[in-house]
Design goal:
The chain is α/β, with parallel strands linked by helices. The protein is about 45% helix and about 15% strand. It has a 7-stranded parallel beta sheet, with helices on both faces. Helix 2 (about 40-55) links the parallel strand 2 (about 30-35) and strand 3. The radius of gyration is 17 Å and the shape is globular. The N and C termini lie far apart (about 35 Å).
Length: about 240
């Protein structure tokens, strides 16, 4: 298992929920965490505080990762302030629930830009330093909705299915360069994003998932160099239904 001590990890959308849990878990493994946020400055600062209170190192970095110029500036700032990014967790996303008849072109474009294009932009920007080092780990936070359609809408499901395709294509192209690319696809996880949508767990395990359980899978992928091109569904056994 690879040591993450002093490696720079960028976690997008790390101000809350799954992103925060991933940031904390990677910091516990010794990584230095760049906590990315777009609007939630106070929550990002709280993520950093939690990491530092546990003896880790973290710093907040603002950027809209759906925009190429801001992604380029983000990676440059991290490299100058801390070093090149070795671990990239593409977690930033939007989940705007729409009924079939109410989905607009703007809804679709937003889902693809924030959930999918951001992962492409960040991966492309982080790859040169990873390839130069001969080591890199990329984990994309997809969704069980990519396989089932989910309850948010086709725009969301399509953007997450695209992340799976992106994951597998990069993994195949980079497998011989010491860079692994994997995805985790959570089901219904207890986060702010879903708290007002579901009241009763539908998973056979009888409860909602926890953000820390998703983060544990992310850490496994980051520490293991012999797993690449995989999408791990974390849904409490939903396929058993």
């Amino acid at each position: 298992m690879d040591s993450l001590k002093e490696k720079i990890a960028l976690v997008t959308g790390a101000s809350r929920g799954i992103g925060r849990a991933c940031a904390v878990a990677l910091a516990q493994e010794g990584a230095v965490i760049a906590v990315n946020y777009r609007e939630r400055e106070n929550e990002a600062a709280e993520s950093c505080r939690l990491i530092e209170a546990a003896g880790g190192r973290a710093f907040p970095v603002r950027a809209d990762v759906s925009k190429a110029d801001e992604v380029a500036a983000l990676l440059e700032k991290i490299a100058v302030d801390a070093g090149p990014v070795s671990v990239l967790v593409n977690n930033a996303g939007v989940s705007t629930k729409r009924s079939l008849d109410d989905i607009t072109e703007a809804d679709f474009d937003e889902a693809v830009a924030v959930n999918l294009k951001s992962a492409f932009l960040l991966t492309q920007a982080a790859l040169p330093a990873m390839r130069e080092a001969g080591w890199g780990r990329i984990v994309n936070i997809s969704s069980n909705a990519a396989f089932t359609g989910g309850g948010t809408g086709p725009h969301y499901a399509a953007s997450k299915a695209g992340m799976n395709g992106l994951t597998h294509a990069y993994a195949a192209l980079l497998a011989g360069e010491g860079i692994t690319v994997n995805a985790v696809a959570p089901g219904v996880i207890e986060t702010e994003m879903i708290s007002n949508r579901y009241s009763t767990p539908r998973a056979p395990v009888g409860r909602f998932g926890r953000a820390e359980e998703v983060a544990g899978a992310v850490v496994m992928f980051v520490r293991t160099g012999y797993i690449t091109g995989q999408t791990l569904v974390i849904s409490g056994g939903m396929y058993l239904n």
